[in-house]
Design a protein that fits this description.
The structure holds two protein chains of two kinds. By secondary structure, chain A is an alpha/beta fold. Chain A is 63% helix and 8% strand. Classes of the chains: A alpha/beta, B alpha+beta. Bound molecules: guanosine-5'-diphosphate.
C-alpha cells in the first residue's frame, strides 16, 4: 500500500485536512504543536486504498524541537511514497520555504494550498497554475475546514512528481558541490538524494540518522568555514536566508496582494491581549469554564443519579445475596457510575476546552503567562501542556515535545501531571463540590495552582538554567465549526468509553468480589501507611489504590467501599477535603506513567513519581490540619 | 532624524512602530528558530505590544504574529522605520 505523508507548518490545517480525508480519527487544534504524534489513517486514491500519515507541524527540515525531529526522521526513513505539502495560503511566502526544502528531498510532491478563504480575507490572490508550472508539481487549493477541494487533492496525488529544485547563489552552490564530492558514499548508504545530504551537512546538521557517522570530514568543515567567512553568518542561516529569498521571489511571481479586510478577529487582540485588560479577562475565562462545567455537570448528575441508584438497589434486592449476584451488582454500579458521575462533567469540560483551543485562545494564554512561568524557570510555551493537562495528563506529557530542551521537558512534564485532569476533576466536583461546597472545590484548584507554582520554584533551583525563552507563533482567531468541535469531543470521549468504562465495570465487579471474599481488609491495611497519617478511614484505601488505574475510579469506588451512595454518612467534610487533595497530586495514573516513561525515560519517571507522591502527602497533611482549624 | 540609522533593541521600539531587523545576536540555535518564523536580518517587524511584568513582546512579521520572551527579544536589534 502506498504511504502518503502530510507535511506542513504548524497551523496550516493539516489535522483538519487529515480528519476530512480519513474520517474523524485524529485531534486538530488551533495552536502550534498539537500534532505531536504520527497519526495514521486510510483513504482511497484512484480507487486504491492508501495510508495517510499526518506528521507533526514543521517550520523547517533542519530539525528544531522534538516534534519536528520526529517529522523529519519519518520523512528520511524511506517509508514515504508521496508527500502532500500543506500550506497556509494566507502565509504563502513563508510557507514556501518548507516547500523548497521538501523539493530538495526529492519525493513526489503535491502542494495543497489550504486556507484559501483566509488568503482571500487578507486580499491575497494566488495563481495556482503558475505556481504549479514553476515548481513542477500539482497544486490544489482547499478549504479543509469546509471540506472544499478534497476530491481534487486526492486525485492530484496520482500526478505527484518530484519538484524542480531551486538553485542557490553561486558561492553557496560551490560550497554544496564541494561537500557533495565527499558526502557521496554517505548519501548512497542512506538512500537520500546526494544534493539533499550535502546541503544538510553544509548546514552543520551532523546528526542525520541513516547518515550514521557524524563524519564531518575536514573537507566539509573547510567548505562550511569558507562560506561562513564569506557571508559572516553560520551556513545554516545562509541557507535559510537564501531559501527565504527564493520563496519571496516565487511568491511575488504567483500572488497578487490586494486589500485586506479588517474584522473582529484582527481587533480582538486589542482587548484580549491588552496589557491591563487581558488578565481580568483571562481569569474570567478560566473561572467561567469551571463554573459552567460545575453547573452543567451538577444539574445533569442530579437528574441521573437517583433513578440509577434506585435501579441498582432494586437489582441487588432482586438477585439476592449470592456471589454471582454481588458480582453483577458491582458491574452494574460501575456502569452507572460512568453514566451519572463521569459523563456530566467530562462532556461539558471537553467541549469548552475544544472551543478555547480551536478559537485560538490557548497560545495567547501562553503569551500572557510567560512572565509568571519564568518564576518557575520555564517559559510561556509550557502553559500549553499545563492547560492540556486539565483535560488529560497523557496529551499534556506528549505536548512537552514542543519544548526546546530536555530540562524544560522534564520540569514541565513533572509539573503538568500535577494539573488535575478531568478524572481528578470528577473526584473534586463529585466529592468536595457536592458534599462540602463549590467554594471548597474552587479552593482545591487554587491550592493546586499554588502548589504547582511552589514546586516549580523549587525545581528551578534543583535544575537551574533557563532555556532560550519564548518564541511562539500566535495564530489568528478562527471561528471553529461545530462539527469539528463535536468531532474532537467525541475523539477524546471515545478513549473514556472504550478504555475507561470497561475498566470501571471490571474493577467494580472485581471490587465486589474482593469484598465478598473478605480481602478488602488486607488491601486496606496494606496502604494504611498512607491513610493513617492523612486521617482517612481505612476502607478508603482500596479506592486510592484503584485510582492508579484511572483517577475517577477513586470516587466511584468510595461509594462501593462504604456501601452507600451518600458519602456524607461515611466521611467527614474534612476527610473529603484531604482525600480529594491527596488524589489531586499522588502518583499519575498508569496511562500517564507509560507516556512519561516513553518521553522522559524510566529514571526520570521514577523521579516524577516520587515528587508527586511526596507532594501529595504534604498537601494531605496540610489539608488535615486546615480541617482541624476550620 | 538620523535616529533612523541607529540600531535599537527590539523592545525599545514604541508600540505600534515598525523596524527593520539589523542583526540577531547570540547562538545559531536561537537565530535559526527566529529565522523560521521570518525574523531575520532585513525583515520588517512591527511591535504590536509588550506584556506587563516584563512579559513577552508581541510582534508582527510578514502578516504573522509571534510572541517573543524578553530574553529572546534582547538579542534582536532593529533600525526603526518612520
Ligand atoms: N478558515 C479556515 N480555517 C481552517 C482551514 N483549515 C483548518 N482551519 C482551522 O485552522 C485551525 C488549525 O488547524 P489544524 O488542522 O489544527 O492545523 P495543524 O496545526 O496544521 O494541524 C483549526 O482551528 C481549523 O479549524 C481552512 O481551510 N480555512
Amino acid at each position: 500500500m502506498k504511504r502518503i505523508a502530510l507535511v506542513g507548518q504548524p497551523n496550516a490545517g493539516k489535522s483538519t485536512l487529515f480528519n476530512a480525508l480519513v474520517g474523524y480519527r485524529a485531534v486538530a487544534s488551533n495552536f502550534p504543536g498539537t500534532t505531536v504524534e504520527l497519526l495514521r489513517g486510510k483513504a482511497l486514491v484512484g480507487g486504491r486504498p492508501v495510508e495517510i500519515v499526518d506528521l507533526p507541524g514543521t517550520y523547517s527540515l533542519l530539525a528544531g524541537d522534538r516534534a519536528e525531529q520526529l517529522a523529519r526522521d519519518f520523512l528520511t526513513s524511506g517509508e514515504v511514497d508521496v508527500v502532500v505539502n500543506v500550506l497556509d495560503a494566507s502565509l504563502l511566502s513563508r510557507s514556501l520555504e518548507l516547500t523548497l526544502e521538501l523539493a530538495e528531498l526529492g519525493f513526489p510532491l503535491v502542494v495543497c494550498l489550504n486556507m484559501l478563504d483566509e488568503a482571500k480575507h487578507k486580499g491575497i490572490e494566488i495563481d495556482g497554475e503558475r505556481l504549479s508550472a514553476l515548481l513542477g508539481v500539482p497544486v490544489v487549493g482547499t478549504v479543509a475546514a469546509r471540506g472544499v477541494g478534497l476530491k481534487r487533492l486526492l486525485s492530484a496525488i496520482l500526478d505527484a512528481r518530484p519538484a524542480r529544485p531551486r538553485r542557490y547563489s553561486a558561492d553557496v552552490e560551490r560550497a554544496i558541490s564541494r561537500v557533495e564530492e565527499v558526502s557521496g558514499p554517505l548519501a548512497e548508504a542512506s538512500g537520500l538524494p546526494p544534493r539533499y545530504v550535502a546541503i544538510r551537512l553544509l548546514a552543520g546538521d551532523s546528526s542525520p540518522e541513516g547518515l550514521a557517522e557524524p563524519d564531518l570530514s575536514p573537507e566539509i568543515e573547510a567548505a562550511r568555514e569558507e562560506l561562513r567567512r564569506a557571508r559572516g553568518e553560520d551556513p545554516a542561516l545562509v541557507l535559510s536566508a537564501e531559501r527565504h529569498a527564493s520563496a519571496v521571489r516565487l511568491f511575488e511571481e504567483v500572488a497578487k496582494v490586494g486589500h485586506a479586510r479588517v474584522g473582529w478577529r484582527e481587533r480582538a487582540d486589542d482587548v484580549l491581549m491588552h496589557p491591563l485588560l487581558a488578565y481580568p479577562i483571562l481569569a474570567a475565562v478560566l473561572f467561567g469554564l469551571f463554573w459552567l462545567v460545575f453547573r452543567v455537570g451538577g444539574t445533569l448528575e442530579g437528574l441521573l443519579l437517583p433513578p440509577l441508584e434506585g435501579l441498582s438497589d432494586w437489582l441487588g434486592a432482586a438477585l439476592g445475596g449470592g456471589l454471582v449476584a454481588q458480582l453483577l451488582v458491582g458491574a452494574f454500579q460501575g456502569l452507572w457510575a460512568g453514566v451519572a458521575i463521569v459523563l456530566p462533567y467530562l462532556v461539558p469540560f471537553l467541549f469548552l476546552l475544544a472551543l478555547l483551543e480551536d478559537v485560538g485562545y490557548l497560545p495567547r494564554v501562553g503569551y500572557l503567562l510567560d512572565a509568571l512561568m519564568h518564576r518557575m524557570g520555564l517559559h510561556g510555551k509550557s502553559v500549553i501542556p499545563f492547560l492540556l493537562g486539565y483535560g488529560c495528563s497523557v496529551p499534556a506529557v506528549l505536548a512537552t515535545r514542543i519544548l526546546e530542551n530536555d530540562r524544560d521537558r522534564l520540569v514541565t512534564a513533572g509539573l503538568a501531571v500535577m494539573v488535575p485532569c478531568a478524572g481528578r476533576a470528577i473526584v473534586v466536583f463529585g466529592l468536595v463540590g457536592r458534599y462540602v461546597g463549590p467554594g471548597w472545590a474552587l479552593f482545591l484548584y487554587v491550592l493546586n495552582l499554588a502548589v504547582i507554582a511552589l514546586a516549580g520554584w523549587v525545581l528551578k533551583r534543583v535544575f537551574p538554567g533557563t532555556g532560550p525563552g519564548l518564541i511562539l507563533e500566535i495564530p489568528p482567531y478562527r471561528l471553529p465549526a461545530l462539527r469539528t468541535l463535536l468531532g474532537k469531543v467525541w475523539l477524546r470521549l471515545k478513549d473514556f468509553v472504550v478504555v475507561a468504562w470497561p475498566l470501571l465495570v471490571g474493577t467494580s465487579a472485581a471490587f465486589a468480589l474482593i469484598e465478598a471474599l473478605g480481602w478488602a481488609g488486607m488491601l486496606n491495611s496494606g496502604v494504611r501507611f498512607l491513610t493513617w497519617p492523612l486521617g482517612i478511614p481505612a476502607p478508603a484505601g482500596v479506592p486510592l489504590v484503584f485510582g492508579i488505574l484511572r483517577k475517577e475510579l477513586s470516587l466511584v469506588m468510595l461509594t462501593q467501599a462504604f456501601g452507600t451512595a451518600d458519602l456524607s454518612l461515611a466521611l467527614s467534610q474534612g476527610q473529603m477535603l484531604v482525600f480529594a487533595g491527596f488524589v489531586l497530586f499522588y502518583m499519575p495514573c498508569l496511562a500517564t506513567l507509560a507516556a512519561l516513561g516513553r518521553e522522559l525515560g524510566w529514571k526520570r519517571t521514577a523521579l516524577v513519581l516520587l515528587l508527586t507522591t511526596g507532594v501529595a502527602l504534604l498537601v494531605g497533611l496540610f489539608l488535615r490540619s486546615l480541617a482541624l482549624l476550620v | 532624524m538620523n535616529l533612523c540609522f541607529e540600531e535599537l533593541p527590539l523592545a525599545s521600539l514604541p508600540p505600534g512602530k515598525a523596524g527593520q531587523v539589523a542583526r540577531v545576536q547570540g547562538g545559531r540555535g536561537v537565530a535559526l528558530r527566529l529565522a523560521r518564523l521570518g525574523i531575520r536580518p532585513g525583515a520588517v517587524v512591527r511591535l504590536v505590544n509588550s506584556g506587563p511584568f516584563a512579559g513577552p513582546l508581541l510582534v508582527e512579521v510578514e502578516g504573522l504574529r509571534v510572541a517573543l520572551g524578553r530574553g529572546v527579544a534582547r538579542r534582536i536589534f532593529v533600525r526603526p522605520l518612520p
